[in-house]
Design a protein that fits this description.
17 helices, three-stranded antiparallel beta sheet, Arc Repressor Mutant, subunit A, globular, nine-stranded mixed beta sheet, alpha/beta, 3 domains, 12 strands, Rossmann fold
C-alpha cells in the first residue's frame, strides 16, 4: 500500500510522483484511483496495469499515462507558485474533505495551512445577487468568522465574493474550478491574493487548466465536502448553488437556506430547498447551533476502500457481455447491476473499472453509472 488515508498519511517524494502520474492519466478519477491503489497495493503497480485494463474494457487505442517527467515538471511548477500537492491526511488538506467518497488523491493547496484545518461553513448563492442578498451574505460570513469558522466558497461573482471579502481577515477558503494559475473570474485575482494571507485556496486541477462549464459542478462537491454545512443565499431554479446543496446532502452535510420573496426568481431555489427539508436560517446562531454537535465528534478518515470496492475478480467473456448489455446512457445503480447480472460485486466492479479506463463509462453521484 502506498499510503492510507488516515490522519497520519505522509507520502514519500517517490510516492507523490507515482500518485500524481496515476491521477493525471486518462480516465482515472478519484474513485478509480482509490480502487486501483487499494487493490494493486501501490500507484506504481496500478500504472503498470492500466493498458491491459483499458484494453479489456474495449479501448480502441492506449490511453495517455502521465510520465515521470510530466509529474516532476508539475510538482516543480506548483512549488514555484507556492502550491503544495497534498494527500488526504496530510497537514493542510481539509480534514472533512478527506473523508468524502471521491476526495482528490492529490489536492493543490495554497495559503495558510492552519486555516484549512479549522471547521468550515460554505456560503454559496447567486452570481447576480440582489443588494439585500449581498448584504446578508457579508453579515452572515462575518459573524461566522468571528465565531471561529472558516468560510468556504467558489470565488465567483455575487454571493461568493461577498462572503469571501467579509472574512479575508478571519479566514476564508477559495475553491477553484481551474488550475491555481487560471483564476476565474480573472478580476478576482486580487481578492484571491488577499484571501491567501489568512486563508487558502484549493484545486484538484493541474496548473494551466482553464475552467470549463463541466468543471464547476465537480468543483462544487469540494466546497460542500470541506464544510460542516452549506448555506445557500439566493439561488434560482437550475442554479449551480443547488448542485452544491445536493452534493452536501449526498455527503451527509447540513443544508441551510435563506428564505426570499416568492416574487423574486433568485429566491425560487432557496425556497424550494426549505420545502424539501433544508434548515431555514436568518442569522449565524442558527448555523452554529446546528453544527456544534457535529463539531464535537472527531473527524474519522477512511483507512481504505470498503472490501467490496477494493476487491476485483477476473470476469469471463459472458460475465462482461452481460454487464455491458445492462448498461446504457441512462444512469443505473451498481447494486442493480450486481443483482440483474447475477454475478458477484467484485466481477461487476472489475468490468466497470475496465470500461472507465477505456473511456466508455461515466460515474454519477449516489453510486450510479452510465455508458458514454
Amino acid at each position: 500500500m502506498d499510503s492510507n488515508t488516515s490522519g497520519t498519511a505522509h507520502l514519500t517524494d517517490a510516492q507523490r510522483i507515482d500518485w500524481l502520474r496515476l491521477i493525471r492519466s486518462d480516465n482515472v478519477g478519484p474513485r478509480t484511483f482509490r480502487s486501483l491503489v487499494n487493490h494493486y497495493g501501490s500507484a506504481r503497480a496500478a500504472l503498470e496495469r492500466l493498458p491491459d485494463l483499458a484494453r479489456r474494457g474495449g479501448a480502441t487505442r492506449p490511453g495517455r499515462i502521465a510520465s515521470e517527467d510530466d509529474a516532476r515538471r508539475e510538482l516543480a511548477a506548483c512549488r514555484k507558485i507556492g502550491v503544495a500537492l497534498l494527500a488526504p491526511g496530510e497537514a493542510g488538506y481539509p480534514p472533512r474533505l478527506a473523508g468524502i467518497e471521491d476526495a482528490p488523491p492529490l489536492l493543490g493547496v495554497r495559503g495558510t495551512a492552519d486555516a484549512l484545518m479549522r471547521p468550515m461553513i460554505a456560503i454559496v448563492g447567486s452570481r447576480n445577487a440582489s443588494a439585500a442578498g449581498l448584504k446578508f451574505a457579508a453579515k452572515l460570513a462575518h459573524d461566522l468568522g468571528d465565531a471561529g469558522f472558516v468560510i468556504a466558497s467558489g470565488l465567483a461573482r455575487g454571493i461568493d465574493q461577498a462572503a469571501h471579502r467579509a472574512t479575508v481577515r478571519s479566514g476564508t477558503l477559495a475553491v477553484l474550478a481551474g488550475g491555481h494559475d487560471k483564476i476565474y473570474p480573472p478580476e478576482h485575482e486580487d481578492l484571491l491574493f488577499a484571501i491567501l494571507e489568512q486563508g487558502g485556496a484549493i484545486s484538484e486541477m493541474p496548473l494551466g487548466h482553464v475552467p470549463r462549464a463541466r468543471d464547476f459542478p465537480r468543483r462544487n462537491r469540494l466546497i460542500s465536502g470541506a464544510s460542516l454545512g452549506v448555506v445557500v443565499i439566493e439561488a434560482a431554479h437550475r442554479s449551480g448553488s443547488l448542485i452544491t446543496a445536493r452534493s452536501a446532502a449526498e455527503q451527509g452535510r447540513e443544508v441551510f437556506a435563506v428564505p426570499g420573496s416568492p416574487l423574486d426568481p433568485r429566491a425560487a431555489g432557496t425556497n424550494d430547498l426549505i420545502k424539501q427539508g433544508a434548515a431555514l436560517i436568518t442569522e449565524a446562531a442558527d448555523v452554529i447551533n446546528a453544527v456544534t454537535p457535529i463539531m464535537e465528534r472527531p473527524v474519522e478518515l477512511p483507512s481504505r476502500e470498503p472490501d467490496d470496492i477494493a476487491s476485483f475478480d477476473e470476469p469471463d467473456h459472458s460475465d462482461r457481455a452481460r454487464i455491458v448489455a445492462l448498461l446504457g446512457p441512462s444512469p443505473v445503480g451498481i447494486d442493480d447491476l450486481i443483482r440483474l447480472s447475477g454475478t458477484s460485486a467484485a466481477v461487476v466492479r472489475t468490468v466497470l473499472l475496465e470500461l472507465e479506463l477505456a473511456g466508455r463509462l461515466e460515474r454519477h453521484g449516489g453510486g450510479l453509472v452510465s455508458m458514454i
